[in-house]
Specification:
- The protein has a 4-stranded antiparallel sheet with strand order 1-2-3-4, with no helix packed on it.
- It has a domain of about 55 residues: Roll (Nuclear Transport Factor 2, Chain: A).
- The radius of gyration is 14 Å and the shape is globular.
- It is about 0% helix and about 55% strand.
- The protein is mainly beta and about 80 residues long.
C-alpha cells in the first residue's frame, strides 16, 4: 500500500515519521549530490552528501545534509542525517 504522498515510503522504520506534512509554500526544485560513500551493489550501508534547493514565498534557498542510508529488503531507505553533517 502506498502512503498518502503516492510513492513507496523512503524512510527506515526506525526513523519514519508517522505523518508527513509538506509546506504548500515550499517547492523543492533540485537535488544536488555532492559526494557519496559506500552504497554499492555489495554494501548494506551508504551515505550521501547533498544540497536540496527549494523556493519559498518567491525566494530561492537550499539546505545541506549528509544523509545515511541502509539497504532493507533490497531497497535503499533513508536512515537519517549523519553525525558528520
Amino acid at each position: 500500500m502506498l502512503p498518502e504522498w503516492g510513492w513507496p515510503n523512503p524512510w527506515h522504520p526506525s526513523t519514519r515519521p508517522a505523518r508527513l506534512i509538506l509546506d504548500p509554500q515550499q517547492r523543492w526544485t533540485r537535488l544536488e549530490i555532492l559526494a557519496t560513500d559506500r552504497g554499492s551493489l555489495f554494501d548494506a550501508t551508504g551515505s550521501v552528501e547533498l544540497r536540496a534547493h527549494y523556493r519559498e514565498s518567491g525566494q530561492a534557498d537550499s539546505m545541506y545534509e549528509h544523509s545515511s542510508f541502509v539497504r532493507e529488503n533490497g531497497e535503499w531507505v533513508y536512515l537519517g542525517e549523519s553525525a558528520e553533517s
